[in-house]
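Hello,

Our lab assistant flagged a job as stuck in the queue for most of the afternoon. It eventually completed. Since we weren't sure the result was trustworthy after the delay, we are filing this so someone can double-check. Below is the sequence as submitted and the structure that was eventually returned. Let us know if re-running is recommended.
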Amino acid sequence: MKLHRKTVLALSSLSVFILALSCTTEEPDGGVQLDTTPFTLDTKHLSPPDIPADNPLTIQKVELGRMLFHDDRLSRDNSMSCASCHVQENGFSDTARFSIGINGFPGGRQAMVAFNMAYNTNEFFWDGRAHLLRDQAVLPIQDSLEMDHAMDEVIDRLSGIQEYEDQFIRAFGSSTVTEERIGLALEQFMNTIISVDSKYDKYLRGETSLTASEERGMELYFAEFNPGFPDSSGADCAHCHGGLNFENDLYMNNALDSDADFTDLGRELVTGNASDRAKFKVPTLRNIELTPPYMHDGRFETLEEVVEHYNTGMVNSSTVDPALLYPINSGGLGLSAQDVQDLVAFLKTLTDQEMVNNPDYASPF
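-- returned structure --
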């Protein structure tokens, strides 16, 4: 059977229209649809992280997470968001020693960074009390020291906002707001905050060179401590802050205090094991220049103070990491003033201005 030419043209136009409609999230009448378009994560020379199989990245879930991360309405009095304590220009951290919540109370520990979270494989927070990133994401919202907002009230508030109803449809297929969906979306957004463009990264890719001081600091950073050969002895930083993410996914006591001076039991509060007393998550050193003060209690203001702690200030205790006993028993690392200066110069090459200025991580509002 032969079709009339006008009929063929009409059918062709209809096919094109249907195909175009299938690739969009918007219906002709303005309705909103589920959009499962994958989000492509660019980690450059870093190996891709293991994204949870039950929460694969999509463009719309990441966007929903970005909205939630920056929205003051998640706090009870509409005064603070996740981004209030995880500030992009400060390496997604807080330069206050202890963040202040909506009730004016300080937190108990220094705010951890919120980038390269996808590379964490051993729970979250300084003590690891949250198993998954989605679990961590919703706890500050409900914490009385932070955003102090009951989750059922958060859900009611967001459910009455058209912008969120539409975005939940695009992300999850319906406008229903739940704690689980909030956590999944926040997890997705934080998993896309990637730091991979520091000067050191560009050096590894052959895009720039290091100064003499930075290069010597790099040698000290990666060289092992060996007091028997002082000319080649290093700061031995990479044992704890190793790999391309400059951490080791462990909980360690880094010789800050003696047993008598422990005021925060750290990991022991979660595991109940005395062997975990005063142990804390080893953080990444990426963007360390941007994230003072340092340590879980923010006791050090400068990188020079941090280096001097390991050089001359470490204290023995019952749970101190064995890797630190050698320098402790040897009277310290033996770094000179120039060594300290060079080591700090190298640490500053880990600053990623591309991440700090990336508009994809900034507030969408």
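-- support follow-up --
The delay was a queue issue, not a problem with the job. The result is valid. Confidence is low (pLDDT under 50) at residues 1-29. The domain at 59-194 is CATH 1.10.760.10 (Cytochrome Bc1 Complex; Chain D, domain 2).
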